[in-house]
Amino acid sequence: MAKLAMAEVIAALKKTVDPEIGINVVDLGLIYDIRISDSNDLDIKLTMTSPMCPVTSVILADVELRLENIPGVGKVNLDLVWEPAWSPEMISEEYRVAMGA
């Protein structure tokens, strides 16, 4: 079995867009850590823009579905964390520039 490439995982994650903000979870800075095991299991540490985010379940379900659809992926484990707290500075430079920030 070939090991998944990090680029494949990131490409899949970029397909999940926060419906309130309109930016994908990678460029929004919500993905804190990605680990790919030798058996292609994925451990993803991520956060939301706020603990009160009304679309948390929608985003988590979409992330999980997109990761599970990567050919050859094993188990997908999502670890929702609140530390460090998300801030707008975590948005990718490309999107900050586009937003005029």
Low-confidence stretches: none
Number of helical regions? 3
Averaged pLDDT: 94
SSE pattern, N- to C-terminal: HEEHEH
Strand order of the largest sheet: 1-2-3
Q: Give the beta-strand count.
A: 3
Per CATH, the class reads Alpha Beta
Annotated CATH topology: GMP Synthetase, Chain A, domain 3
- At the fourth level of CATH, the homologous superfamily is Fe-S cluster assembly (FSCA)
What gyration radius follows from the Cα positions, in whole Å?
14 Å
Largest β-sheet summary: 3 strands, mixed
Globular, elongated, flat, extended or rod-shaped: what is the shape?
Answer: globular
Strand content: 15-25%
Given helix and strand content, the structural type is alpha+beta
Distance between the termini: 44 Å
In the CATH hierarchy, the architecture is 2-Layer Sandwich
How many domains, as an integer? 1
Helix content: 25-40%
Structural description of this entry:
The protein has a single domain, classed as 2-Layer Sandwich (GMP Synthetase, Chain A, domain 3), CATH 3.30.300.130. It contains 3 helices and 3 strands; from the N terminus they run H-E-E-H-E-H. It has helices spanning 6-13, 56-68, 93-98; strands at 31-36, 42-46, 76-80. It has a 3-stranded mixed beta sheet with strand order 1-2-3, covered by helices on one side. The termini are far apart.
